[in-house]
Amino acid sequence: MSELIVLKDLTKIYKMGDEKIVALNNINLNIHKEEFVCLLGTSGSGKSTLLNMMAGLEKPTKGEIIISNHHIEKMSEKNVTKFRQLNVGFIFQSYNLIPTLTAMENVSLGLTFKGVSRSKRNKMAKEMLENVGLGRRLHHKPSEMSGGQQQRVSIARAFVAKPRIIFADEPTGNLDTKTTLEVMDLMTSMAKELKQTLIIVTHDTELADYVHRVVYLRDGNIEKIEEKEALIKGDIV
Amino acid sequence: MSKLDLILMSIKNLWRRKLRTSLTILSVVIGTSAIIVMLSLGFGLTGFMEEQISQWGSLTTINVHKKWADPSQPGQKEVKLDDKAIANFKTIPNVVAVSPMLQEYGAVINGRYMAQVPFRGIDPDTMEAFGFEAAEGRLLNNKDELVVVFGSSMIHNFWDPNSRGVWREPKINLMKDRMSLTLDPNYGYGGASMGMGGGKEVNYKEYKIKAAGVLTEGNWETSYGIYMPIQELQKMVADKQKAEGQRQSSRSTSTEYNQIDIKVDDMNNVAVIQDLVKEMGYEAYSLNDQLDMMKEQAAMIQAVLGGIGAVSLLVAAIGITNTMIMSIYERTKEIGVMKVIGASIKDIKGLFLFESALIGLLGGIFGVGFSYLLSYVINKFGAQSFGEAMGVYGATKISIIPIWLVFASMGFSALIGVISGYFPARRAMNLSALEAIRTE
Asked: How far apart are the C-alpha atoms of B19 and B323, rounded to whole Å?
């Protein structure tokens, strides 16, 4: 399997007044194409920082982030944005839908920035919302939907442009157990189908069952890496 | 992000906050119309002054005189106002015509009526070029001798010296009546005409004249005057001086004139030619001098008025900035999300700048509309009292909105919007996506 993401000696130090906080300490990690990885750790372990840096939202203090041969840490803000538009989808814990837009508008927003024509992006958004089971809620606003439904909209938004990598930051943190299972099933099966790489950040060990590899983080260091026999739908023949 | 999407999204965002948007626009409307109306009053004033000055005489004529030789500067070149000077002036570009000019006061006698008037001797061939038009009869030509052309209001100047103060409409036909003229300065006032030299009685000659025509209504200068070929008037002046016992001054016999008029093709070229003539060593005067002074005054008044208007637009601009900052605070999270899901900083900046530009532009458009309304009301109800305050009755328009001002103010208010929105837009642009999405 080819390496999609390569992290070399990745270090991030925050300055809080005079104090220096090491959020990430010399992280070396390779993530393959189409691999599902879970970054597991308690709060303060540096997992979110790692995710943000892979997504180009934060610059490392030291080290390299290479995604399909591009050095993310060296890119200008403009190019990182372009890179994100083309390659990355995001799913957040608190959904982060825009409250004034309908489900369909939220899903198509990313496509708007990409410059996709109106009719095309509406078609794509509608298709994607149907895939996540919200075909009847196209014109509802986030406030008119349950948490699970909102997260589905957010998943649809992340997947609609068919990016190569999906980053999910505590995607089930606000959901109950039943909905968590539904959302995880949905996410992993879609990523599988679209041959995407999925990186999930969580403190919930149960999500580890859905991935190929679990990276345990503690205090900015990789504690251990666990290879899993993933329970991904479709993997089981 | 396509331009159309950006525009639609901005409009949608503004529409989302209807009340706030419309209040901000209202402030721009007030600011813009304050400036436009104030400036329009200035334009009205300038137009009014121009109108008034053009009644005094032609705005495109330059009067050239001889410079009084300054004895303290012996090196000064003596210039002559002769035919050579005329030929010289004719070569200046944009000069339409040049004529010598001699003015002499006297009286015209028509039966028992008379009129005191300025006689003006000019070059008959240049009359047309100087803008004279005959309402009746014809203009002068170079074969005319004791032939004159009357100014349009001349007929109202005739009166009966024996009527003892009771004025009756004189029954006069300028074109057909037999008339004569005299250069006697006291004609009609009774008493002996005294010469300037001593106490001797002077016998002024009376000349029989024929009217060639009457001029169309012109300005104050041409309306009350009688025009004749300059050679004729020069002869009469010579006769007068002889009668008064004065020694003939060289001026009246030689070809030197005491004034030369230059007609210029356009008002805008007057100043340049006037300076040129001054450089040649002459004294040059035109109504432009007055006009410039008045225009300067009007411009100053306009600047003060515009300044007052500008203050309210400044307040409106601060209002726009405030509105945009508020909107960015509200939408911090939204901006962060947009950044994360692929909005470039250019898109974000574009969105906010366009929103504020739109506020400015809409304010400008409604402001122009509102200004027209105000201007109409001012002209309709304010013109009379304003005109009376200025000492002129029947002032036409005191508020004039030139068409360029309409577009300039729309553009300007949109620009104000962009400038006001720039700081907030930068703020949105530099917002950290991470911090924004963390905001709960």
From this structure: 11
Give the distance from residue A237's alpha carbon to the nearest chain B alpha carbon, in angstroms: 35
- Which residue of chain A has the CA closest to B438? A94
Q: What is the pLDDT of residues A118-164, one digit of tens each?
A: 899 999 999 999 988 888 888 999 999 998 899 999 999 999 988 99
Residues of A in contact with B3 (CB under 8 A): none
Of A96, A100, A110, the CB nearest to B437: A96
C-alpha A12/C-alpha A184 separation (Å) is 30
Report the complex ipTM.
0.84
Which residue among A98, A112, A157 places its CB closest to the CB of B5?
Answer: A112
Query: Of B1, B16, B340, which has the smallest distance from its Cβ to A57's Cβ?
Result: B340
Considering chain A, what is the average pLDDT of its residues?
A: 87
**Is residue A40 one of the residues assigned to a domain?**
yes
In a domain, A4, yes or no: no
Q: What share of chain A is helix, strand, coil (3-state, %, to 5)?
A: 35, 30, 35
Q: Across the interface, do A90 and B16 touch by the CB < 8 Å criterion?
A: no
What pLDDT was estimated at residue B247? 61
Q: Checking DSSP bridges between strand B95-110 and strand B260-264, what pairing results, if any?
A: antiparallel
Test A98 with B334 for CB contact under 8 angstroms.
yes
Domain with A118, as residue range(s), is 33-60+76-227
A218, part of any domain: yes
CATH number of A55's domain? 3.40.50.300
The band of B22, judged by pLDDT with boundaries at 50, 70 and 90, is very high
Exposure class string for A80-90: b at 16+ Cβ within 10 A, else e? bbebbbebbbb
pTM above 0.90, yes or no: no
Separation of alpha carbons A204 and A47, rounded Å: 13
- Report the SS3 class of residue A61: coil
pLDDT at residue A51, as a whole number: 87
User: In the predicted model, is pLDDT for residue B230 greater than 90?
Assistant: no
Does pLDDT of B197 surpass 50?
no
Nearest residue to B43 via CA among B289, B409, B367: B409
pLDDT level of residue B269 (50, 70, 90 thresholds): confident
pLDDT 10s digits, A160-181:
988 999 999 888 888 888 888 8
Mutate which: A49, A111, A113, vs B, most B CBs within 10 A = A113
| Any domain includes A10 | no
Query: What is the distance between the alpha carbons of residues B339 and B327, in angstroms, rounded to a whole number?
Result: 17
Q: How many residues does chain B have?
A: 440
Closest residue on chain A to B341 (Cα): A110
**Which helix (H) or strand (E) is B287 found in, with range?**
helix B287-330
Q: What is the structure's pLDDT at A161? A: 87
Q: How many Å apart are CA B272 and CA B303, to the nearest integer?
A: 26
- The more confident residue out of B355 and A1 is B355
Between the alpha carbon of residue B184 and those of residues B104, B116, B199, B439, the distances in Å are: 10, 10, 15, 100
Q: Do B345 and A110 touch (CB under 8 A)?
A: no
Q: How far apart are CA A155 and CA A176, in angstroms?
A: 17
State the best of B3, B10, B332, B340 to mutate against chain A, taking most chain A CBs within 10 Å. Answer: B340
| Amino acid of residue B271 | A
pLDDT of residue B390: 57
Confidence at B381, pLDDT banded by 50, 70, 90 = confident
Distance, in angstroms, between B326 CA and closest chain A CA? 17
Domains of chain A: total: 1
